[in-house]
Fold this sequence. Notes:
By secondary structure, the chain is of the alpha+beta class. Helices cover about 15% and strands about 25% of the residues. The protein is built from two helices and six strands. The chain has helices at about 50-60, 70-75, and strands at about 20-30, 30-35, 35-40, 45-50, 65-70, 85. A hairpin with a 2-residue loop joins strand 1 (about 20-30) and strand 2. The termini are far apart.
Amino acid sequence: MCLFSYAEDPDPDEQAPAGLLFVPVRTQAAGPVLRVFRTPLGERTAVGFSRRDLLTATLGAGQPAIPLAEPALRALTEPLGIDRLVVDPVLTAPAVATGPVYTAEPADAPARAL
């Protein structure tokens, strides 16, 4: 006889609604703009956090965010072709540097033959 009842267990493919999420944004003059992230395989994804402290722990204290319900976040990202939503990610890579890249040699140094 089985000690556990599986009749109430959800199917792993059926995910429960995430509810209200704290969604990272960039502040622009016209208002907040949704930040879109990429998975390790390069797929674009929306990201939301179930608690503000989880967002702060992952993206830092200076990251602005807005509260959005999961259906609203999906509605915003659907026209962009983004159908993936990651809730409470814990691993992130540092932002790509947008400044100049410095090398060991000055830029005006003559090229050397190898």
